[in-house]
Specification:
Helices cover about 40% and strands about 20% of the residues. The termini are far apart. The protein has about 150 residues and is of the alpha/beta class. A 5-stranded mixed beta sheet has the order 1-3-4-5-2. It has helices at about 5-10, 15-25, 35-45, 75-80, 95-105, 115-120, 120-130, and strands at about 30-35, 55, 60-70, 85-90, 105-110. InterPro entries: DUF34/NIF3, DUF34/NIF3_sf. One of its GO terms (cellular component) is cytoplasm.
């Protein structure tokens, strides 16, 4: 099973040690270099294994500093801005929160609630196994209940 730090590093976000720091910093970190939001979205879709995402922001804007939060990240918009994030990756951004983010100049990539939390499942499984010395089995039936047409 792969540790989340290794996965983040393998995705090209930062080094493994950088990923450890990213996690300690409250899920905020810097890409190795600037990239246009549109290009970054393509990477995110690939890494999160989703066909589409919802976007708030300017697709041509260059980004470097990212924030990420699983599930609904609406309440983290101001935190992301205070930490200097160019983009917040999350799921379930509400309509009015998207408007606020847009007015405040924060780009958002909404990968959907399921996708934003699914990556953490194997990491949590490993923690539970080690903490409680129990056998754990990762379900293969867990899937996104929504379909996009």
């Amino acid at each position: 099973m792969e540790r989340i730090q290794k996965y983040i590093a393998r995705c090209g976000v930062t080094s493994r040690r950088g990923a450890e720091e990213l996690i300690k910093q409250g899920r905020v970190g810097n890409l190795k270099g600037e990239i246009r939001l549109k290009e970054f979205i393509n990477l995110i879709k690939q890494k999160f294994n989703v066909d589409n995402v919802r976007i708030v922001g300017n697709l041509d804007k260059k980004i470097k500093r990212i924030g990420i939060v699983g599930g609904s990240g609406s309440s983290f918009i101001r935190d992301a801005l205070n930490k200097g994030c160019d983009v917040l990756i999350t799921g379930d951004i509400k309509h009015h929160d998207a408007i606020i983010a847009s007015v405040l100049g924060l780009n958002i990539i909404d990968v959907g609630h399921f996708a934003s939390e699914y990556l953490a499942v194997t990491y949590l499984l490993d923690i539970i196994k080690k903490s409680f010395d129990v056998e754990c089995i990762l379900t293969e039936t867990n899937k996104n209940p929504f379909a996009v047409l």
